[in-house]
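Researcher: I'm comparing several assemblies side by side, and this is the next one on my list. It has 692 residues spread over two chains. Same procedure as the others: predict the full complex and return the structure.
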Amino acid sequence: MLTVRNLHARVAGREILRGIDLSMRFGEVHAIMGPNGSGKSTLARVLAGHPEYEVTEGNVLFEGEDLLAMDPETRARVGVFMAFQYPVEIPGVNNSYFLKAALNTIRKHRGEEELDAMEFMTLIRERMKQLGMDEVFLTRPVNEGFSGGEKKRNEIFQMAVLEPKLGILDETDSGLDIDALRVVANGVNAMRSAERSFLVVTHYQRLLNYIVPDVVHVLSDGRIVRSGGKELALELEDKGYSWLEEPVGK
Amino acid sequence: MSLDLYRTEFAKARAHRPKGEPAALAERREEALHRFLALGFPTTRQEEWRFTSVTPIADQAFALGAPPVGGACPVDVDPFRFHGVCAAELVFIDGHFVPSLSTRAALLGGARAGSLAAAAAGHAADVEANLARVAAFERAPFVALNTALFADGAFVHVPAHTVLEHPVHVLFMSTGANDGSPLMSHPRVLAVLGDNSQASIVETYAGPEGARYFANPVTEIVLGQNAVLDHYKLQRESAEAYHVGSIYLRAARSANCASHSISLGGALVRNDVMAVLGGEGGECTLNGLYLADRQRLVDNHTTIDHAMPHCGSREIYKGILADRARGVFNGKIIVRADAQKTDAKQTNRALLLSEDAQINSKPELEIFANDVKCTHGAAVGQLDEDAVFYLRSRGLGLAEARRMLIHAFLGDVLHRMPLAPVRDGIEAVVERQLARALEAAA
């Protein structure tokens, strides 16, 4: 469903991604791990279409379509969702108003009927319950005054409502305590299906105890230097990232 | 261009005045004309007009418009009406009252809303006591010009202990030009609220799209003790028009006054609001919302004069500027030596939608009392690009994302305007005017 070929990208004139190759199939969960500054979050943001990141080489196909040619809203509409590492506070924009507008835009794009207020409320109540969220969230402005954990939970909640084909989790685990981590992971696991894939960007192996990946990639200096099964994450946990810098036997 | 034009127009206007105009008012008009001729149009060398050149107004020969013949309406008034929500709707064309376009439901408790010229001719005591006395023209050329030349306007009187449940709407329409020469009008409003009375008054200024004309209104508001007024000035002139307006407001003990200035149209716009809290315990709210695109200019000058102790004032002005538009905000707060326990708060925020848009913003605090609370804050910014991306990443289009953020930006000032029919129309107009700027790439 997702094919990344020789992807190079830079931000503020600095090259961060130096040739990423990655291939994901429907139903798979891939984890992207790596030390700080390795380009994990850049990869997530480039896939979501963040305007500050410039792709200088390579291409990305999503279901056979040129993802990089799409603006951010089109990517969202065709089924790409990124849970932000730092969700943005938007004072004055009501959470449920925003989410209803987003959902109906996406539904329209899919050729589905837009939901009316009642149908929407029914849907989000159910999703909120799954994520143990208080309904007071709905009446508040987007992320404003939310704690770090609440913001991350709100991201997963939005993902559960918008039902993307590809969910990209950009360090969703950072700043979460173990209980919140479990809630978030359960939310993701509940969404796993043969028609949906996840790209889980994380610094720590901890999250992968709960969201068990099919493939683990290790990023270093803008390239994938190792790929393997879930055991690779444990190995990293054990040895740290420094051994990656040693030459790899060919 | 010579000011003689105004002398000529004055002579013409004098010949057409209603016969009953009291001698005292006629004299006041002569004084005002001479004052205007002595002052001339302000220049950017004057501090009050530093950022706003009125040369485009001074350089054109504007003529006073004649009353519409036989009540025929040369312009479409309908889009600017508030259908079915007003106690009275007074319609003026080029400054002349048009009864056939106006509606007046029975006003309660002896309240009146009608032609100011007629009230003056009838020697109404509240007109004689207040007209051209609240708005001082000695140092204000545009107020002097209005006082000399106004044909008519609205007089709203709410007697003591009377509550007007529904708003009074005063609609000043300009027609634009006559025989190729651009028209000017000098609408006048006098609102007098007796002790313990309550009312809502909306003034709308509008003209046909694309028309170039000059509107120079002056409003005088006098509030008795404990009176409560919710006042709106909705400026929806054509995008080519010149609009210079002044509102003078005087509040007695424990009066509560809100004046909302919504400025959406006009090529060159200046709004002055001068509020005097002249009795203990008064409350004043000034809200402003302005919008300009292309090369338009909107200048808001406000003064809140805390003359007596224990008064509070709250002021929030918010503006959106696109393209090469310019905004000016000058908010003066005076706290007189007697005005202990004053509580004044001023906020001014501008949103710039393009790199070429600009705002000159200045708070001016003159505080002569020592036991007061005065705060002011100003902020200028662009739309938060991170927020725009966040919304887009959830599927919302660029224009929709920007619209949502602008709605949020205007939200708190709009929510401070209690009258829903006014509030409701504003966002639609803002959206329509900004449609181009919203679609444009970041």
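Model: For your comparison table: Residues 10 and 54 of chain A are 5 Å apart (CA to CA).
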